[in-house]
Amino acid sequence: MTKDFLLDKNILITGATSGIGKSLTKYLSEHGANILMLSKDESKLDVLYDEIVKKYNTDPCIFKCDLQKLNEDSAIEINKIINENYSGIDAVIFNAAALDKMSHIESYDLATWEKILKINLTSIFLIAKNLIPMLKESSNPRIIFTTSSVGKKGKAFWGAYSVSKAGLNALSEIIADEVESVSNIKVFNFDPKATRTKMRSLAYPAENPNTIKEPLKLMDYYLWMLSEDSSSSNEIHIEYRSDKFR
User: Fold this and answer.
1) What is the pLDDT at residue 120?
2) Can you state the angle between helices 19-30 and 219-226, rounded to 10 degrees?
3) What is the pTM of this model?
4) Which of 72, 14, 56 is nearest to 39 (CA)?
5) Is the separation of the CB atoms in 63 and 49 below 8 Å?
6) Other Cβ atoms within 10 Å of 187 Cβ, number
7) 20 near 46, Cβ under 8 Å?
């Protein structure tokens, strides 16, 4: 890919201030994209915004949003702000997710269950359904979901997180089946595998983080998914492999 192949592309990233989302925000800005950063942490958003404006000649935007509290009206408001400030949207990368705690189902409390499903699944549904009409106007639109192996096969103690990722897998397939035959939208559901993030350290506290790949190792995958090269792919579910882009 050329260094500026994303020049003037408008890309919304959820969970933009940490982990994979933060790496994506910086890396795609470096390639010319205007990143619409969504996070609940306003101070981190401000710092990241200032860094991008200083380093890159792009037009970023901040969305301070707690996905646990997102409703239909606030999802519509996101669309309104994009319409008022940009010519449209070219991609959305759903990166934000919460794990909260790991527990037996018999001791899993309802409040945590509902919180995780709201952040990891319902909020994505709300944002996606409202962005699809705008994405259809782009020349090379993308919807990229972030999944996990525990979404394909349920695993003890992963509770609502595992259920939310299984639901996300189904949602990605539904949206792909609905839009890919009638628009240019391409849908991907990406499993980054073990990556050095705060969530990973929460799930595996005894693991040595230095043995786990950094988020930057994933960037070639995202560049490919966002590029025209991926338009002919018949795959929805994509898994990280260390040898794919060698």
Assistant:
1) 97
2) 60
3) 0.95
4) 14
5) no
6) 22
7) no
3-state secondary structure of 190: strand
| HEC-encoded secondary structure of 25-41 | HHHHHHCCCEEEEEECC
CA separation for the pair 58, 89 (Å, rounded): 15
Q: pLDDT value at position 200?
A: 86
Written as tens digits, the pLDDT of the chain (246 aa) is 677 889 999 999 999 999 999 999 999 999 999 999 999 999 999 999 999 999 999 999 999 999 999 999 999 999 999 999 999 999 999 999 999 888 999 999 999 999 999 999 999 999 999 999 999 999 999 999 999 999 999 999 999 999 999 999 999 999 999 999 999 999 999 999 989 888 888 877 888 988 899 999 999 999 999 999 999 999 999 999 988 765
The amino acid at residue 229 is: D
Residues paired with 14 in a beta bridge: 38
Would you state the structure tokens that stand for residue 12, as one six-digit string? 């919304």
For 67-112, list the strands marked E by DSSP: 91-94
- Say if CB 68 and CB 117 are below 8 A apart: no
Report d(CA 181, CA 168) in Å as an integer: 20
Residues 131, 134: Cα–Cα separation, whole Å: 5
- CATH code: domain 10-238 is 3.40.50.720
Taking the C-alpha atoms of residue 15 and residue 85, their distance in angstroms, rounded to an integer, is 21
Residue 64 β-bridge partners: 39
Amino acid at 232: S
Read out DSSP for 46-58?
A: HHHHHHHHHHSS-
Per-residue burial over 7-20, b if 16 or more Cβ lie within 10 Å, else e, is eebbbbbbbbbbbb
Residue spans of the domains in the chain: they are 10-238
